[in-house]
Each structure stands twice: as C-alpha cells, then as structure tokens.
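Changelog entry: the Tripartite-type tricarboxylate transporter receptor subunit TctC record was regenerated in this release. Current contents:
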Amino acid sequence: MFRKCLAIAALALAATGAHAQAYPSKPIRLLIPFPPGGGTDILSRLVATRLGESEKWTIVAENRAGAGGTIGIAAAVRAAPTGYEMVMGQKDNLVVAPWLYKSVAYEPTRDLMAVAHVGYTPIAIVTQANSRFKTLADVVAAAKAAPGSITYGSPGSGTTIHLAGEIFKDAAKIDIRHIPYKGSNAAMMDVLAGNVDLLVSSVPSAMAQIQSGKLRALAVTSARRSTSLPDVPTVAELGYKGFDVSTWYGLFMPAGTPKEIVATVNTAVNKLLAQPETREAIHAQGAEAQAMSTEEFAQLLKSDYLKWKDIVRAANVTVE
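Regenerated structure tokens:
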C-alpha cells in the first residue's frame, strides 16, 4: 500500500510537471482594455510580439475597450482559469475604477491573479505645440482669470489620468472642465485640432506627438521626472509639493489559474524585461520597464487598491 501511494504521488507530480512544461499548447488571448493606439495598447502589443519571438508563443491581442477599461477587466475575470486568457491591467481599471464606478462587478485582489508587472509611467499634461500656454503657470493664470473656460481631455472618466487632472485642479484651486473620450487617440486628435485646450495622458500615448513637435509637454505628474522627457518638470517642482500620480501596467489572469502557469508566464516576462533591447523599446514609448515576482506584484496591487480608496474619496469624483 505504501509503495502504491508513492507511485500515485510520483505520477501526480509528473503530471503537474508535464502540464507546466507543455504550456502553452495553443494560442493565448491577451485582452487590451483600451482602444488601439493608446499607451496600454502599445505596450501590450510590444510585450505580446516579443514574447512570441523569445518564447515561440502565439499571443492573440484583442482590444476590449469601454467604461474606463473596466469592460476588458470584467471579461478577463469571467474567463476560464486555464492560463489561455490574460489581460493587460493597470492602475486605472484595477485600483481606481472600483472606487469610482458603482457598477464594477469585480474585486481585483480576489478575482484576478497578478502574473507579471511590466512597467510604470508618469502622466503628462500637454497642449498643442502652438497653444497660448507655454508653461503650466500660464494654464493656472488663465483658469483663475476665466474659471471654467479651459478644457482638458482624458482617455475616459474613471481613469488614473482623469483623477490626475482632478487632483491637479484641487491642488491649484482652479476650475477647468474635463472632457472624457473613449481612449487616448480620440482625445489627442481633438487637442491637435484645437478643440480641447489640454490633454492629460500617459507618456506612452503622447510620446510620438511630443517627439514630432506637435504637442508640448508642460509637466509630468510623477514624483520624479520621466527619463523619456528629462527636460519636462514635475508638477511638484512647479510649486505643488508632494504631487505624485503615476500609473503601472501588468499582466493578470483569472483567479484559480494554476500557479505553475502563472509562474511560467512571470518567468518569461521577467526574462524579457531583462533584455536591453526590450527595456529600450519600452523606454522609447515613455514607460519604464520594471520586473517583479508574482508576490511583489500582488502586494503592489493590494496596497494601491487600499490607498486609492481614500484618494478617490478626497477628490470627490464619481462615475455612473
């Protein structure tokens, strides 16, 4: 009987090892919770392409946009926990949105498994290159002279980017009007056309237009300057001490996904992020590559989730 038990245990371990080793045996679907062309889309496709090259995996990217990125996250939560469904989540839809939207049908720390942190990015306040606003001080002065006359676009209500704009309004004691869009590209087109005065955007979403000279970056909202925009001051440097709003990106799978699969993907992504060419490609998009263990990433999610409950309440912002 003892030998039989040992044999069964050995078979179980072998099966587990074979299961992990065989993964993936078919294409993996990667949900992107925002429209094509934005920062999340750019980084998601970059990671999917490079994982395909380095690991010989087939990753099919699918945009599932709407409601501040919560529709894509909800779809991932409902997916079968087989390891063949994952989503590129970020602070917007995992940490901020649950405290803003009354209808969010998931609790991120319970319904998802943190798989692999990819990177983080500051948020930028930008304007059209020929705008009358040359500095952030110009915006503040104009807003105080004519409250409510200045508009700013964001990729959607309930995003970290939207909150960055609202928190800045509160810090500067000004009244500027928020114009939500369905993604960064739509907001950017209206800023470039002069229909909206300012754009609050992730650096990856705005980077190409800043580099081309079509947009002027007035400030970044992180605690330190972006290495992609070293000449652009932080909001804190411009007199708003302690101002710090940034966002992060990472891969998640539905709760219940086998831990061996989660570990396999984490190892593959971290190996990818250690490659100089991948780090440079992410940096070129305005983000900073940052690898984490699954435990570290899960802790980041948990701590930020609790922290932003108070931030959202203090900002007094709600979204239907």
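The longest strand covers residues 112-128.
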